[in-house]
Every structure is written in structure tokens, then in C-alpha cells.
Amino acid sequence: MTTMGLFSKDIKSMNDLFEHQLRDIYYAENQIVKALPKMIEKASNTELRNGFSEHLEQTKNHVTRLEQIFEMQDLTPEGVDCPAIDGIIEETDEISGEVDDKRVLDAALIAAAQAVEHYEIARYGTLIAWARELGRTDCVSPLEKTLEEEKATDEKLSSLAETNVNLKAAE
Ligand SMILES: [Fe+2]
Ligand SMILES: [Fe+2]
Questions:
Q1: Distance, CA 150 to ligand 2 centroid (Å)?
Q2: Helix-, strand-, coil-residue percentages of the chain, each rounded to 5
Q3: What integer best gives the mean pLDDT of the chain?
Q4: How far is the CA of 42 from the centre of ligand 1 (A)?
Q5: How far apart are CA 64 and CA 58, in angstroms?
Q6: Cα(168) to centroid of ligand 1, in Å?
Q7: What's the Cα-to-Cα distance from 88 to each of 72, 142, 144, 150, rounded to whole Å?
Q8: What is the pLDDT of residues 48-64, one digit of tens each?
């Protein structure tokens, strides 16, 4: 992982900014691949565990898709530190360490997972808009595929929370 911008301004153009953002989300997706197995372990609700497992497989695919994009763009697949995703994951670890009741923990895990999904949705939305603007159109459809999966996951988490997990947590 490389750190940019410490001694010189490395982002000189919109194209540089696009590439930086790609590396940022690449780092983030890799961190999510590492974080999800811990979330699966902590979750008690079967549907939630299954949902997390399914999204882990999708997330591995997001990493591969990004690697294909790097390749198409003649870029080395390399991440840059993304303090935002590190913060969301750190907060997840912290809060889940403090929740005693398993059902409340499930509600907390959904909230954390949705923060991750919303982060991804924001990033992919921006990347798609920039790819279009910059004429890097071959990136658009793989980025859109991932964005759709993030949105679908977010919606599934909302409905699982509202129809099941929150009810049990609030009992
Ligand atoms: Fe993802
Ligand atoms: Fe995701």
C-alpha cells in the first residue's frame, strides 16, 4: 500500500484523481474481505450469517473486477490507505465488543454493514460518473455491476433488520 501526497502533490489531474479513487476502493474492498468473516462469526441470526457469507463471495468478486479494471487501464493493482473504511471497520469491532445480548449484537452488525455498503455506494457512484466524464467508458459497466450488488445488499440488510433482527433485538 502506498501513501500519497506526503511530500508532493501527486494528484495533478482528474485522471489522477480517478486512479487514486480506484486504488482507494481497491484497498477498501480488500479490507472488507478480511472483515466479513469476523462479522459472520459474531452474527447469530441465520439469515444474517447467510447474507454476510453471500456478500463475502460478492466482495471477493469486487476485488477481481477492480483488478480487471486496473489491467484494462494499464495500471498496477495497488491500494492506497483508506482511513474511512478503516474507521468504519474499527468502529464495528469496538461496538460489537461492547454489546452483550446476541440479538442486539445482530442489530449492531447490520448497522455496521450498512455503513460499509453506503460508503461503497458513494465511491462507486462517483467512480462511474468520473469514468463517463473522462471517456474511460470500458470501466463503466464493471463498476455498475458492483454498484448494483452493493445496493441490493443494502436493501436486503434493511429488510432483514426491519422484518426480523430489530424486532428480536427490541424484545
Ligand atoms: Fe464491494
Ligand atoms: Fe459491499
A1: 5
A2: 80, 0, 20
A3: 94
A4: 20
A5: 10
A6: 28
A7: 30, 25, 23, 16
A8: 999 999 999 999 999 99
The rounded Å distance from CA 73 to ligand 2 centre is 23
CA 62 – ligand 1 centroid, Å: 5
DSSP H stretches of helix in 43-82: 46-72
Question: How many angstroms is it from 129 CA to the middle of ligand 1?
Answer: 17
What's the pLDDT score for residue 168? 94
Residue 3, all three cell numbers? 501513501
Distance CA 171, CA 158 (A): 18
Which tens digits make up the pLDDT trace of 82-112? 999 999 999 999 999 999 999 999 999 999 9
**pTM, two decimal places:** 0.93
Q: What is the Å distance from ligand 1's center to 52 Cα?
A: 12
User: Which contiguous run of DSSP H or E holds residue 106?
Assistant: helix 102-133
